[in-house]
Description:
The complex is a heterodimer of chains A (269) and B (489).
Chain A (H helix, E strand, L loop, with lengths): L2 H7 L12 E10 L2 E11 L4 E5 L6 H8 L9 E9 L2 E2 L7 H7 E4 L10 H12 L5 H14 L3 H4 L12 H14 L4 E5 L7 H14 L4 E5 L3 H7 L2 E6 L2 E7 H6 L4 H7 L5
Parallel strand pairs in A: 3-8, 3-9, 6-7, 7-8
Antiparallel strand pairs in A: 1-2, 1-4, 4-5, 9-10
Helix pairs in contact in A: 1-9, 4-5, 4-7, 5-7, 7-8
Chain B lengths: L2 H28 L12 H42 L3 H21 L10 H10 L12 H37 L6 H41 L2 H6 L5 H5 L12 H32 L2 H13 L5 H24 L10 H26 L2 H9 L4 H30 L2 H6 L17 H9 L8 H35 L1
Amino acid sequence: MSLESAATLAAPVSRPNAPPKMTGENVGVFYGAKQALFDVNLKIEQFNVTSLIGPSGCGKSTFLRSLNRMNDTIDGCRVTGKINLDEDDIYDPSIDVVELRARVGMVFQKPNPFPKSIYENVAYGPKIHGIARNKADLDEIVHSSLRRAGLWNEVKDRLQEPGTGLSGGQQQRLCIARAIATKPEVLLMDEPCSALDPIATAVIEELIDELRENFTIVIVTHSMQQAARVSQKTAFFHLGKLIEEGKTEDIFTNPKNKQTQDYITGRIG
Amino acid sequence: MSAGWVVAIVLAIGAVAYFFAAQRARVQRDSTDRAKEVPHSLPTYHGWLAFIFATVPALLVFLVVSSVSSGLLEGRIRTEVATHIADPAAASLSIGMVHNTSNALGQLGLSGANVPASYAALRDMATSAGISLAESGEDYMVPLAASVNADAGVHKLIGQGLTLLLALAGAAFSYSRIRLRLRARNQVERVVLWSLLAASTVAVLTTVGIILSMLGETIHFFSDVNPLTFFFGTVWDPRFAAAGSGGSEGQFGLIPLLMGTLYIALVSMLFAVPVGLMAAVYMGEYASNRVRSTVKPLLELLAGIPTIVYGIFAVVTLGPFFRDLSAALAGGFSFIQAQSVLTAGIVMGVMLIPVVSSLSDDVITAVPRAMRDGSLALGATRSETIRKVILPAALPGIVGALLLTASRAIGETMIVVLAAGVAARINFNPFEAMTTITVKIVNQLTGDLEFNSPQTLVAFALGLTLFTLTLGMNVYALYIVRKYREQYE
C-alpha cells in the first residue's frame, strides 16, 4: 500500500469548527541544563487522531509526556511555555496533577499490565477515582471497556486470570481498556505498536480508529504508514523542534518543508 | 628450619621460576617469525604456569607430610601411654603431659644423652628456665617424649627436603616444557577454575563440618536425656539435675527457651518491619537522589554496629528508661522490668531496621518502572501506586526478605544476653524477662568446663535446634525470592 492511498483511507476531520482540545504554546522542555524541546506550538483537535512523527530523539515522546505531565516523574525535568486542556492551563499550580492524568490517559510503548487479574487491571482506575458506585456499576465499566478495546471475546471467560499471562497484543489492548476505563478525554499513545507483530498492530490500529469517536487521541509512532493509516493530523518533529504540522494527507502527499519531505521519503531519520 | 621458612623458600623458587619461564617464552617468541608460527600464550602465562608447577605440588606435599607426621606421633604416644594407664579419661590427661614434656625438652634443647633420667630432674631444669610442667608426671614420659621429639625431627627433615626438591623439580619441569605452541594460557585458566572451586567448597565443607560436630555431641546428649523430654519439656532447670536428685529427666525442657526466642523475635519484627519497610519505600520511591545518597549509607551504618553495643545500649539506657517510665505512669510501681522482652525486642528491632530496609529496597527498586508509570498515568497518587501496585508486585520478595530478617532475629545472641534476662519461663507478659536459646547456650558454656555432662552437652542440642530453625527459614526465604525473580526476568 502506497503512502498516498493510505492517507486517503483515513476519514476526514470530523468536526472542523470545534475548538482544539489541547493547545501547546511555546512549549519547551529541559532535562537538567539540556533543552530537549524548543518552542512548540501545536493544536490537538477534538475527536481526531494526531500523530507525532520524527526520528529518534526528536522530542515527540517528550512532547507527548508533557501533555499529561508524566515528565514530572523524571528528576530534573522542567517545562516552559503553556499547555491548555480546554480552558485550563495544565501547568498552573492550582491544577491537580492526579486529576489531570485521569482526564488525559496514556498507553505506553511496552505493554505494562499490573501483576493482577485482568478484571483488577481494568478496574484499577475506576476504583481509585471512585467512578463506580457499586459492584454492578464497576462490572459494567470493566466489561464495556474491554469490549471497546476489542478484548472482550478473548478474555470474557478468564477475567480472574493474571493480565501478565496474555499475549503481547492482548496485553496492549488490556492497557488501552485500562486507560479508557477511567473515562479520559484525551488518550496519549507512545508508540503503542512498536513491541507488537503486524497482526496485533493491525488490530490496534483498527481500534484506534474506532476510539476516535469518543476520545481525542495523540499517538507517537515511528511508522509513517501507521501515521498515514490512523491519523487525521500529523506533526513532524526534528531535533526538538516542530518542523511542520497539518492534515495527514497534506503532510504525506504535499509536504511544504524540505526536511519533512526528506524524512517521509526516507532520506533522513 | 620452621614451616614459615619452608613456605617462603618455596614461594621464592616459584617467583624465580616465573621470571625465567617468562623470559624463555619471550626469547622463543622473539626469535620466531610470526608468519610461520604463532605463539599460543603470552610470556606471562608461561611464567604463571611455572610458578604454579613450582609451588602447588610442593606445598601440598608439605601439608600432607606434616599432618601424617603429627598423626603418627600422636598414635605412638597414645599406645605407649595406654600400656601404663588403662582408664581412658586419666590417659587423656597423661597424653597432654607427654606433649608438654616434649615441648619442654624442645625448648630446653635437650636430646639424646642430655635428656635427664627422671621426670623430677627435668621438671627442676624446666622450672629454672621459666617453663612450667605439671607436678604429677612420671618417669616413663621423659624417654617417650625424647624419642617422639627425635622422630618429629626426622619427619620434619624428610618433609622439608621433599618439599624443596619437589619445588625445584616442578620449576625445572615446567621450564623445560616451554614451547611456542604450549597452551599455557588454557592450563593457567584451569588452575584458576580449580582454585575458585576450592574457595567456594570451603564454605560448604565448613557448614557440613559444623553440622557433624554438633550432631555428634547432640547424639551424646540424647543418650543421657530423652529427646521427647527435651523437645516437649516445659521446665528448664539444668542445675537442679546436676545435684543428682534423681529427677534428671524433664529438666532440660526446650519449650520455655523456644517460646522466649520466638516471642522476642516477634517483638523485634513488629518494630523493625513497619519502620524498615517504610524507610525502604521512602528511599526507593520518594527520596531525591541527594537525600538517598546520604541517608541510605547512614542507615546501613546501623548494620555495622557490633551487636554487643546494642546490648549495652539496651541494658544501660533503654531498660532503665522503660522501668522508670512505667514507674512514673503507674505511680511508683514499675510494671516494666529493666530486663524485659520489650527492651530486648525493641533494641533488636533497631538492629534489624537496616536489614529489612536494605533488602526490601532492593526488591522494591526491582519492580519495573513501567509499573509505576502505568499507575501514575491512570491518575493514581504515589502512595496509591505504592500500596496497590508496587508492594503487591514486590510482596514475594519482601516476604523472603522478612524471613531472612527473622532468622537473624532468632539467632541473635549478644543483645538478648544483656537485655532479655536469664529467667527461663513460659510467660506472655512482654514487660517481664524471658530468655532465649542463644542466651542459654552462652550460659551453659561459660566457664571452665569439660564437655561430658548433660549440662554442657545440652548446648549442642540447643545449637543444632537453632541451626535447623534458621536454616529452614533461610532455605524457604531463598526459595521464595528465587521464585519471585523468575517473574520479571
